[in-house]
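Worked example (supplementary).
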Amino acid sequence: MPPPIHFVHFQETIRCLSFTMAGTEAKKPSAKQSGAKKKEVKKETGLGLTHRKADNFGEWYSEVVVNAEMIEYYDISGCYILRPWSMAIWEIMQEFFDPEIKKMKIKNCYFPLFVSPGVLQKEKDHVEGFAPEVAWVTKSGESELEIPIAIRPTSETVMYPYYSKWIRGHRDLPLKLNQWCNVVRWEFSNPTPFIRSREFLWQEGHTAFATKEEADAEVLDILELYRRIYEEYLAVPVIKGKKSELEKFAGGLYTTSVEAFIPNTGRGIQGATSHCLGQNFAKMFEINFENEKGEKSMVWQNSWAYSTRTIGVMVMVHGDDKGLVLPPKVASVQVIVIPVPYKDADTQGIFDACSATVNTLSEAGIRAESDFRDNYSPGWKYSHWEMKGVPLRIEIGPKDLANKQVRAVRRDNGAKIDIASADLAVEIKKLLDNIQQNLFDVATQKRDECIQVIHTWDEFVQALNQRKMILAPWCDEEEVEADVKARTKGEMGAAKTLCSPFDQPELPEGTKCFASGKPATKWTYWGRSY
Amino acid sequence: MPPPIHFVHFQETIRCLSFTMAGTEAKKPSAKQSGAKKKEVKKETGLGLTHRKADNFGEWYSEVVVNAEMIEYYDISGCYILRPWSMAIWEIMQEFFDPEIKKMKIKNCYFPLFVSPGVLQKEKDHVEGFAPEVAWVTKSGESELEIPIAIRPTSETVMYPYYSKWIRGHRDLPLKLNQWCNVVRWEFSNPTPFIRSREFLWQEGHTAFATKEEADAEVLDILELYRRIYEEYLAVPVIKGKKSELEKFAGGLYTTSVEAFIPNTGRGIQGATSHCLGQNFAKMFEINFENEKGEKSMVWQNSWAYSTRTIGVMVMVHGDDKGLVLPPKVASVQVIVIPVPYKDADTQGIFDACSATVNTLSEAGIRAESDFRDNYSPGWKYSHWEMKGVPLRIEIGPKDLANKQVRAVRRDNGAKIDIASADLAVEIKKLLDNIQQNLFDVATQKRDECIQVIHTWDEFVQALNQRKMILAPWCDEEEVEADVKARTKGEMGAAKTLCSPFDQPELPEGTKCFASGKPATKWTYWGRSY
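After joint prediction of all chains, the assembly is encoded as:
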């Protein structure tokens, strides 16, 4: 059995070293090293990762997010700095998602960071789910607060007292709000950049409807947007489905999710969730309205969120031993143009051609930049931008200049393509589309190779040991999932349900649950997870 | 002397009532009242404000922000809910500012909410300025934290240890980052929506340069963007200038600001600030670099921010006794179209004309909506949308239909204009531009009427009592400002410098400081302030 994954290890080391490593960061591929004299071109690259994805996934991941300049470790454990290279990805997803929800008449708002203990504790199941992770403010300046104040781990209890106030009649429905904000969950297990951090950025939508039908429909509309973020933007295949009773949102009616899978660790990862809260919170917070017949009714509610975790999933799925691999749609730099001058060659002509290339591409709406730094060799620059995951590199040397062409090199598969300068924008656009599609196709193929259909407990255990994403017929009983968890407990973590896919294979009459032997009612994905 | 302004009063009342007032909110102008039966058209309006701007400014302000549905009071004092009506204004300003700073090669990032005490306390003057207002997290779940963790009141100390790490050589400069985030300042005096709240939203830019000249230039470039936000978007005139030594940012070298003025209260208000931090933080946080000559140097730094306070200034300046008045450029609804059906008239035709009007305007890029609610009279709707400050109302009745026209009514001055349907988009666009300009012109005229040039202490005291914005010759000595503060202390608050305007009137040789009698070195604005 492969060794367990210890994320926390390398991170904590990094964190502790961060202020003592100054000047010794040989592997840091930026221009930020001291002692670099002008014109002294660095030939040694030394940019490679010290860990391989296949061998030490946890260490590899931590190294990639730092060396690609996405993340800086912070001096408070579990908190991370999102550097511009990752923040730009967040902004691009936001530029897609925000207009989409506005089309659905969902409006942005901003509720406070702080929650008073009274409302936080109003919904019993909900507070049980979050209480151990809640951070409490007890002091301001030198004064103790009269009552401690919680920092939102999520905003159901922050918002719903006001939904109760604002909603009176059926004309006030639906009420559809969203906010982009930070939330805090003071977790102590395995903090991992993007994937599990004590503070993270997300959007949280909170909607209230007159009928369950409307709520049900919205849950799926939002889930489809989450699928599109993963599949169309991050090029990560996901499975849409419903969470089990054990795994659903604390206090909700049912939870749907998009589930991704990390082949290297054999772990599923919940990509984003769209919950139908039913009328449970409405009952606790007295969110009532007078319906069209003049009768008092309770609203039906949803809440849904995706977070900066999305970025971590993308890194894990596409990254390789050269570093990050960015899908073109979310890359803040899609094309990096690098001059390759030679002795006696027309250096100025090459530089001009690079600038012209950037201009042509920019005008065509492609995010292109050039790297004219004179203290790094072309080879160093290749490695640097590969580490940062730029989808396409364009090299321009004397021969390219003579032939009125550029050389394009793909980050995803290393393929080299010569492109006539005259066709530049059209061909590069095609190439970027192709890279986007190829990343998705390759990731889907790898994910699909990990899916194992099983029918018995023995097959289940074997597949689990092989780090598979397991599709199994299940009786859908809470106790059975609890039992599976108990029986698979170990240092790698217990197996649990990931989701019951909406796209259900045929379940022949008489199929039995792999775990309980009772009649199976559905196919469900199982596995270890993040 | 007019009575002092007590903001806190009405707010706290509102806050305490918020959960007991259900069903009795007669003055709330939304459709959210219970008991409204279908087709029972409400004729009584009862929408007016209970306080007048000229009589009870503080209460008027609190009422406007609540009744216009910008703000909801929250159950933690000093925290406010930003409802979609105000959030949209914030987003529109962001859509202007964010691309502008990106053109300046400033990149967005996100640093953690939390600061460890060690770094927070590193810069002495800085921490003294913020320490009394810092909120501290001391617990997570049921566990005490080993060391308390502060919530950022601003992010200098959060960010600069990493600037020290990232900046090595001159090629790493300039480093220009910005973040959009929330900050917390646990103030106890007079919380006021937008203007002074314990949590607020802002952007904070933090930049580092090799030379003072570059830093100086950026300070002014950013200040110009802040001027444009106020003058071009919020239609609020501001004065650009430099803060006094007493009023500058704690720990910085100098502070520039845009200063607005609220004629009704006779108070200046700092609109946004752009600080040159000099090398002070660089020294404390060891932000050094090797310059082009290979010598060790210290960076020059700036920080600059504008916050949701901008929205409050706009409300105070333009609002009137009918409610909010929104400048068209920041209004999420610029035109509200209201059908005015009569008995026996072609109701369907009127509704169709309203829909067609909204379509035509939307296609022309104007933010237009219709109000087809059937349980409110046209008169009620007029008052409702006036309360919410929509710049232009379009009424369509049988006569308008017959004449192939619409009637437009301006929110700023109540003027009624008939517009031929054929010219709709062009004429409405002109009108909106005109309203935007008129709001700015009227506000500028009112502000200018409050400016009083004085030369002596007696004139100063008289002008202060008349709630003027005082322009006075000053010796620019810290002790003299401290002395003026001490001498003007009272229940309305002491007078202080607002700024020394960049646009300096002539200062004749031999002019004396109004307060000290020493030779004056500059003209400076003085007054009470928020």
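Two points are worth noting when inspecting this output. The first helix of chain B runs from residue 7 to 17. The first strand of chain B starts at residue 71 and ends at 73.
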